[in-house]
Amino acid sequence: DADSVFECASLSKPVFAYVALKLVDTGVLQLDRALAHYHRPDYLAKDDPRLDRITVRDVLRHSSGLPNWREHPDREPLRTLAEPGKGVNYSGEAFYWLQLVAEQATGESLDQLALRHLFEPAGMRASTYTWSAHAARHSVIGEPAPGATPTVQTFHRQWSLLQPIAEARGKPLREWTWNDGVRALPQAQAAAPAGMFVWPGDLLANSAASLRGPVQDYARFIAHVMARPTRQCWEIGEDTRQAMLTPQMPLREGWLDKGLGWNLERIDANTRWFFHGGANAGRYKTFTVGDPGRRRGLVVMTNGGGGTGVYQRVIRAATGRDLLAFDL
Questions:
Q1: Burial category of 269 from C-beta neighbours within 10 Å (exposed 0-12, middle 13-18, buried 19 and up)
Q2: Where are the alpha helices (DSSP H) in the chain?
Q3: How far apart are CA 37 and CA 29, in angstroms?
């Protein structure tokens, strides 16, 4: 129903990109400055000089050269797979590092930043990167695709275990920063099944994957990615908004590109649509697409591992197009 809260999965990334670009607009961050200039987490490899060349722009256009996720973050240093700025390497790790940079630069957690710069002014009041009483009441349960091997609904189980720890510590989960995760890790490991919490990142909001909210909230966000007659002071500037939707790195030459936080698909010589998909735990499949020229967009969220076919059919029926994005 209208209150149903979904795991947005990787649709988390464009939302965080918007918040990060607001920090660029206000001078807190610079697009072409290295992340290491702001903050170098202890889990980065010490013998990888390419890490020092990754910029904020590289993160947002997925040209950091970093892997998506490490298999063993508790014992495996983060290192590059490729030279930054030279090609596309889709990376959740890069977004998470930028999240820690934003935290370090502002003194605020991811959810605090998102609440101040987007959720509250845009009316996305049921959205959170962590957990809330509303999310606990209204989160839909994800179902695996028929015949698929069920996997753990990671975020759902993690947050329910962390909530009592947060209450006992007197600090809401949405206010936790990296240091809170470090301090709470032993207690969380003692309360959870083995392997659920292996490093502090498992206890915190995740800018690449943990956004949770209703479809209506995400549609409100899409409206603020479009050109608007009058932009409010809390929104990103018009030049920044246009940069989000301007090709930054080719994905499929002439047809698909990376923007800042978005994928871009060429529709004709003068038109590009922006889009992003998401998948969590083999149980949630999400997709959004926007047509900035006509200021229209569409958001589909499913709580089923077979949801890819659902959103493709919805988008084909609504737009009359079979997107190249579906082949990615």
A1: exposed
A2: 12-25, 35-38, 56-60, 92-106, 110-114, 120-122, 133-138, 154-169, 178-191, 215-223, 238-244, 307-319
A3: 10
Give mean pLDDT, residues 135-155.
Answer: 89
- pLDDT tens digits for 230-283? 999 999 999 999 999 999 999 999 999 999 999 999 999 999 999 999 999 999
Largest CA distance in the chain: 58
Tokens representing 299? 């958001």
DSSP code for 134:
H
Q: Report the C-alpha gap between 95 and 217 in whole angstroms.
A: 22
Give the amino acid at 149: T
Q: Is the pTM of this model over 0.85?
A: yes
**Cα–Cα distance list, 286 to 11, 110, 327 (Å):** 7, 22, 15
- Read off the amino acid at residue 253: E
